[in-house]
Amino acid sequence: NRGVPVGKFILKRLGQMILVLIAVSILIFAMVRITPSDPISSMTKGKTISPEARQELVEHYHLDKSNPEQYLIWITGALRGDLGESYQYKQGVTFLISQRIGTTLTLVILSGIIAMVIAIPVGILCAVKRNTWVDKLLSVITLIFVASPVFLTALVFMMLFAQRLHWFPAIYHGGMKDMILPSIALATSMIALTSR
């Protein structure tokens, strides 16, 4: 009997998650469509093309169909794993994501490890030194990292540790050393939240 409410709870949460995903997908689709820019001009980078070539692009990307039809084409393709074609790279979006997912996962895992390694000792230290200057100092530092957007922290770290001190490379070249600085920057907010 105890398993039934848990099962219902999980099904309810899954249903809510699906509804949220559908709502977000519609919102993003609508936001892209209401932008004043012309998709064909974006694809051709403003270059003049013949009416025939323009019409071919319009038909290829289903821009001749209504917005609801375009959404249904896109969402059914997305459910099959086809996220469409990149205007810029002229390649499938799914392929482009698959080429970069390994680096992304490595970055996420590395930043999680760094966050745990630093946050747990900091949290213990704050608990042991509660209401002392150590606790107050660490509280201020963690508050700054929580309040700072990750991209801003990353820029500050890059300027300080890569460009000024030359401890880390500023550009990713494919090595693990190149991932340390962005991983630390990504870990700062996690460290601040976990340690508290």
Structure in a nutshell:
The chain is 74% helix and 0% strand.
Tell me the layout of helices and strands.
Elements: H1 3-34, H2 39-44, H3 51-60, H4 67-79, H5 93-128, H6 133-147, H7 150-164, H8 177-195
Helix pairs in contact: 5-6, 5-8, 6-8, 7-8
Please give the oligomerization state of what you see.
Answer: single chain
What is the overall number of helices?
Answer: 8
What gross morphology would you assign? Answer: extended
Distance between the termini: 38 Å
Q: How would you state the average pLDDT, rounded?
A: 84
How can the largest sheet be summarized? none
Helix/strand order: HHHHHHHH
The total count of strands amounts to 0
Q: Any idea what the radius of gyration is?
A: 24 Å
Class of secondary structure makeup:
mainly alpha
Helix content: over 70%
Low-confidence stretches: none
Q: What fraction of residues sit in β-strands? A: under 5%
Structure description:
The protein starts with a helix and ends with a helix. Helix 5 runs antiparallel to helix 6, helix 5 packs across helix 8 and helix 7 crosses helix 8. By secondary structure, the protein is mostly helical. It is extended.
Features:
single chain, 196 residues, mainly alpha, 8 helices, extended
